[in-house]
Predict the structure.
Amino acid sequence: MKHMYQLSLATDQIGQSLWETQRRNLSAVDRSDDAAMEEAVLRYGCFVLCQRGPLPVAVEMPEIRESSRAGWALALAIAAVLVFFATRKWHREKKA
């Protein structure tokens, strides 16, 4: 569902986003493996969206990638270094 909501927000095509999410998840399943296909259909195929009007035809849906946490880690490390040096300077001024 997270992927469906990300597509919906990125494209403003709610119905198409649900269909595309189901299509991507079900197409990745090995069709010769009945157990895997049944599990995938039960997991991804059961969502229904109530929408007035037909779905748009042939809408190009973007690839949604998970956000990288490397940027947050770098920002946190820089903030920690700045706090360290600020408190170190503050302790020196306090002693003098």
In short: Residues 70-95 form the longest helix (26 residues). The chain has a mean pLDDT of 77. The chain has two domains: 2-65, 69-96. Residues 2-65 form one domain.
